[in-house]
Amino acid sequence: MSLTSILSAEAIENAVKECQAPDSFTYKKFFQLCGLSSKSPKEIKDVFQILDEDNSGFIEESELKFFLQRFVPGARTLTEAETKSFISAADDDNDGRIGAEEFQTMVLS
User: In sequence order, what are the residues at sequence separation of 6 or more whose Cβ sits closer than 8 angstroms to the Cβ of residue 23?
Assistant: First the structure.
């Protein structure tokens, strides 16, 4: 399964373009632009599984750094500040990583 089987390639490209400058990434805007925030809970879970590279059931900080590259190879990495704010926004149980339920809640918020 690929991200383009869930989201349109054009929407993904537009979302990544909007946050090319360092420290310009905003998860809410990104999820809206790529169309993820209007997807079903199952589709959001499928996207989570694609982003969870090591299949641990969590998106860790090391995976989150390369978040944009999972959508478009060659995209920039997230800055440390962006990565930390992304995690703190989603990490309801304060374990330092984002679980599937936390990700879904974040996307749909």
Answer: 79, 81, 82
Spell 39-65 as b/e; 16+ CB within 10 A means b: beeebbebbbeebbeeeeebbbeebbb
The pLDDT profile of the chain, 109 residues, written as one tens digit per residue, is 899 999 999 999 999 999 999 999 999 999 999 999 999 999 999 999 999 999 999 999 999 999 999 999 999 999 999 999 999 999 999 999 999 999 999 999 9
Does this model's pTM top 0.70? My answer is yes
**Cross-strand pairs, 50:** none
Tokens of 11: 């929407």
Burial of 91 (0-12, 13-18, 19+ CB in 10 A): middle
